[in-house]
Amino acid sequence: MALRNAPFWLLVLLAVALQDSCDGAFSHSLKYFITSTSEPSQGLPHFVSLGFVDGQAIDHYDSNSWRMKPRVSWMEKMEEDDPQYWDRETQILRGTEEIFREGLETLRNRYNQSEGLHTLQMRYGCELRRDGSKGGYWQYGYDGRTFLTFDKETLTWVAPDPQAQISQRKWDALPGRNRYFKAYLEEECFDWIKKFLSHGNETLLRTEPPVVTMSSRTEVEDGMETHVCRVHGFYPGEIDASWTRDGEVWLQDTFHGFLAPNADGTYHYWISIQIDPKERSHYRCHVEHDGLQDPLDLELKDPTDSKSNLWLIIIGCVVAALVVVGVIAGIVVFINRRQEDYNAVPRRNQAI
Fold first, then answer.
1. Which residues, in sequence order, are CB contacts of 143 under 8 Å at separation 6+?
2. φ and ψ at 38, to 5 degrees?
3. Is the confidence at residue 337, as pLDDT, over 60?
4. Which of 26, 150, 318, 349 can pair with 129 through a Cys bridge, CB separation 3.0 to 4.6 Å?
């Protein structure tokens, strides 16, 4: 899918989703994304749903296949606990697809818009952080803007404009449904994290240490040096990579790349810095990760001793991150699953 077809709101959302693990904000997460578009194109179906555990895609549904399918082998074990799991999730998403299709038309008329490309998106998820604290969110977006956000503390929806307030009033008139959302975000979501981790523990609970390499070059224009610290092949995605000056974290004149997955399920990341060559000895690339016994502190190299393909490395990392965004773009959340009250609670099939 071409990046121009991806709304800015979703690109930012996905960049945040990828970046979350970079700053060590949480140790385990469960996220879902759904996108429905009024003008399907090659590579972008009308409706797409994708789920993630710890940044790894675990399941997928789209309007071409009309079937919920596992994206990783260990998710096939879900049938061991519940033989009807995939059939039930498929039926739920087929219903959600129809609701989203109708919602697109409703919102187009409500905003008095012409026909053309419009998108309705949803995301939700929860995070279990290292310090034991928990977080959860539930959001909708329309045409690249936030449409509704659930406030689980007040059990209400927050609407940014009058058109969204119409849906807000309708949904806030269903207190039982809002209580379910709160219970899901504060309890059930974390039960699902534990279940997924139990099935995918060999993949999700493993550690792979990062391989760290340094590249540098001298800028022709002003004689300044640009250094890139590239961190590759690590898992999990939580990593602390930073530039330090005389042992202190240094943010000035630095640039951070995207945290992005590799084909083998590991991650890569890079940071660059521009400095005066006379100050080179003061700087280090500092890396901390669960796969390392001790933090790494790499010295900066003389550009004359480094290869000249620095910018190819930078471009390659940027392109890889954009490809990830482009492939995933268009996704937003389907509301998950309480088996015991599946027929009683209209979790995902809520009209706009």
1. 7, 111, 118, 119
2. -80, -15
3. no
4. 26
Q: Which of 140, 107, 136 is nearest to 123 (CA)?
A: 140
Please state whether 18 falls in left (phi above 0), alpha (psi between -120 and 50) or beta.
alpha
Give the bridge partners for 254, in sequence order. Answer: 273
Query: Confidence band (pLDDT; 50, 70, 90) for 349?
Result: low
Residue 142 in contact with residue 160, Cβ under 8 Å?
A: no
In 3D space, the residue among 118, 126, 163 whose CA is nearest the CA of residue 142 turns out to be: 118
Structure-token pair, residue 40: 């399907």
Max distance between CA atoms of the chain, in angstroms, equals 69
Cβ neighbours of 161 (radius 10 Å): 12
265-289 pLDDT per residue, tens: 889 999 999 999 999 999 999 999 9
Question: Would the pLDDT of 348 be above 80?
Answer: no
Residue with tokens 């391989």: 211
Scored b (16 or more CB within 10 A) or e, 201-226 reads: eebbeeebebebeebbbeeeeeeebb
Radius of gyration of the chain (CA): 22
Tokens for 136, please give them. 């959860």
Q: Which residues contact 76 (CB under 8 A, 6 or more apart)?
A: 70
State pTM to two decimals: 0.70
Question: What's the pLDDT score for residue 340?
Answer: 36
Determine how many CB atoms are found less than 10 A away from the CB of residue 52: 19
- The pair of structure tokens assigned to 299 is 């010295």
Contact 81, 212 (CB under 8 A): no
